[in-house]
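REVIEWER CHECKLIST
Item 1: Sequence provided? yes
Item 2: Single chain? yes
Item 3: Sequence as submitted:
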Amino acid sequence: MTGNVAVGVNGSAESFAAVRWAAREAALRAVPLRILHVREWPVPPERLEHVAAWGSTREGPVPPERSRQYGELLQQAAGVAEEAEPGLAVVAEELAGEGRAHRALLAELETPGSVDLLVMGSQGLDSFTGFLIGTTSLPVAAASKRPVVLVRSGETDSGAQGGHTAAETGRLVLGIDPRGDEDHEAVLEFGFAEAARRNSRLQILHAWTLPAMYAYAETADPGIGEELAGQVSQTLSSIVEPWQKRFPDVPVQAKAVVGAPGAELVYASPGADLLVVGRRDRPLPVGPRLGHVAHAVIHHAKCPVAVIPHT
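Item 4: Structure as written out by the authors:
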């Protein structure tokens, strides 16, 4: 699985971190990198800070067709990508967007053969208020038909991402719930393929808790909990085994642990090259949304997060 790689930029530090991550990903896949910027007009209030940073005109933000700021932004983003991966083919493009940028990006993702993986900057949680900042990355990750990787500022500066030698193996973390009715094929395929590209080991986690109905029974017979744990581990192994045979060179550690799924994945994220989670791609009355596990890791994980849509 190769596929086209694109990255969205808006002038923030997080978007430039995303450019560096996307450049290395494109190099690993041996494909060009598309850098996308959406020309939003009128400018949303939360974007005024980034737009103002690209010019000192006293008249304030001006329509895209009258400004050179966006062209300069794309040039700088292309320079960041070429510095991260010298020799990488880079194409910088503007997309016209009426209102919110996420709509233009989602429309681009719907174009066949256009983008197979979209990388975006994410500010995570604001340390003061505790609320998520930014209005583009989450709506895209919640509704995209393609995998989306969210990167925060500083996550690519340490050089953790990239290829590894046999003596310098990286680590990818992947979370699944084998007890549900979800189709895990897309999530597992993405995780194994990414680990193979990087010569990295794959850590597969399933976090679970004892159902409430078993609480009193376990007090009387602790063996019930052990029996359920064995069943969960066996189910996880049966799901992972075919993929281990398909990717025999990828070292795999599949483990079922007792705990909250989001928290356990966040605990496993420090030092990882990437954390991979799934998102149910299904119509809902209130529109697309991310599950609580995906929300938790996007907010708190200490590494880039890949959100993979699946049925």
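Item 5: Key structural point noted by reviewer: The radius of gyration is 21 Å.
Item 6: Recommendation: ____
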